[in-house]
Design a protein that fits this description.
With 372 residues, this protein is α/β, with parallel strands linked by helices. The protein is built from 11 helices and 11 strands. Helix 7 crosses helix 9 and helix 7 packs across helix 11.
Length: 372
């Protein structure tokens, strides 16, 4: 396991070298904008939000500026993509499949909750069918994660078996230390990457290891205060309580808008649609979908097995914390908290999990998220 040190300036220089070499770089960034002259006496507008973006220039990098609004998912499972095209030629139809993408890419500064989601989704993408498009992008990507200091009270990675510095899903993990980052390779690909770019790396200075350990310990302590969860006990309670009265009112505020699923790094539902694009030509496309809208489970007969929003929200919770763990031995959640932050109904998954945890333990009601 290689442990190196890279300064802030050298990391930006490295990003620039990757771009110059034609390697795609995905990183937390602000959108490039032409400079706007400030109006005297007028307050400046809000800063553009940080999101993962294809980097055009190093100046747009926004490493360590909080959690990007959206997850990395769309760079591996696009919101919409063509799977194949078709055209009618006289009495038959010709098909042309879209080949997997293999453009090399480096993801720089991924938060651990986003990097950790990738191997979780790998399981379902290689279950009964090998998804070539997903895996093509996965194999072409090298992931450099950046340890997180903890964002706010919606973070709960520690409750689902991860941490603000988990190496899961990353090839290299950066941890902030004085003047730069400690860089630790966690895969052979990460080792190779550090070796290839050793000109930008140094041996860790004295005290760097201790600073990295302190950073991680403080982040771990901060996030762990938000929620303590016995995942195995919760899974058992969910499996045994499909019809529990708890579910009757749990989603009264849910709009069924799917904002939670669309920002989630592990939600992966999609729909397949054949779209006609002209006379005798068209394409089959894969589009994001989610289990929360009523149409998701509406049968052609008109019957809907989940007619109420409570049932649909129950499915989301069951899938993440019981169904998926039972099948793949992994929780379908990395604790990023985005679902809480974007919910227009102010539904708080941490409150719900705290209540399920309480019910599973047979404990009195508690409003304290940290109560086990």
């Amino acid at each position: 396991m290689s442990v190196k040190y890279i300064t802030h300036d050298n990391l930006r220089t490295l990003a620039g070298e990757l771009l110059a070499a034609g390697v795609g770089v995905i990183a937390p960034a602000r959108p490039a904008r032409a400079p706007v002259e400030p109006v005297p006496g007028q307050p400046s507008g809000p800063a553009a939000a940080v999101d993962y973006r294809w980097l055009d220039r190093v100046e747009d990098l926004a490493l360590g500026e909080g959690l990007p609004r959206r997850s990395l998912k769309e760079f591996f499972l696009p919101t919409t993509e063509e799977l194949l095209s078709f055209r009618q030629v006289k009495g038959h139809v010709e098909f042309a499949e879209r080949p997997p993408s293999s453009k090399p890419r480096v993801i720089l500064g991924a938060r651990p909750c986003d990097a950790a989601a990738l191997p979780v989704v790998d399981r379902v993408m290689n279950w009964d069918y090998h998804d070539e498009l997903w895996m093509g992008r996965r194999q072409a990507a090298l992931v450099i994660a950046l340890a997180c200091p903890g964002v706010d009270r919606s973070c709960f990675c520690t409750a689902v078996g991860l941490s603000p510095a988990t190496p899961q899903g990353s090839d290299v993990l950066l941890t902030p230390v004085e003047g730069g980052y400690q860089a630790v390779a966690s895969t052979p690909a990460g080792e190779d990457f550090l070796a290839q770019h050793r000109a930008r790396l140094q041996e860790p200075p004295a005290g760097a290891a201790g600073q990295a350990e302190q950073f991680v310990a403080q982040a771990q302590e901060l996030v762990a205060k938000n929620l303590t969860l016995d995942a195995a006990r919760v899974q058992g309670w969910l499996e045994a309580n499909f019809e529990h009265p708890f579910w009757n009112t749990v989603a009264l505020r849910c709009h069924g808008c799917s904002a939670c699923a669309f920002v989630c790094p592990t939600c992966h539902c999609f729909d397949l649609v054949d779209e006609v694009e002209g006379i005798g030509v068209g394409s089959r496309r894969r589009n994001w979908d989610a289990c929360q809208p009523a149409l998701f489970t509406l049968h052609g007969s008109g019957h809907n097995p989940r007619p109420q929003q409570n049932a649909r929200f129950r499915q989301r919770v069951m899938h993440k914390f019981m169904i998926y763990p039972k099948k793949f031995d992994a929780i379908l959640c990395t604790g990023c908290g985005r679902c809480i932050r974007v919910c227009p109904g102010s539904m708080d998954l941490l409150d719900l999990l705290s209540e399920v945890n309480r019910l599973a333990a047979g404990s009195p009601a508690s409003s304290d998220r940290g109560a086990a």
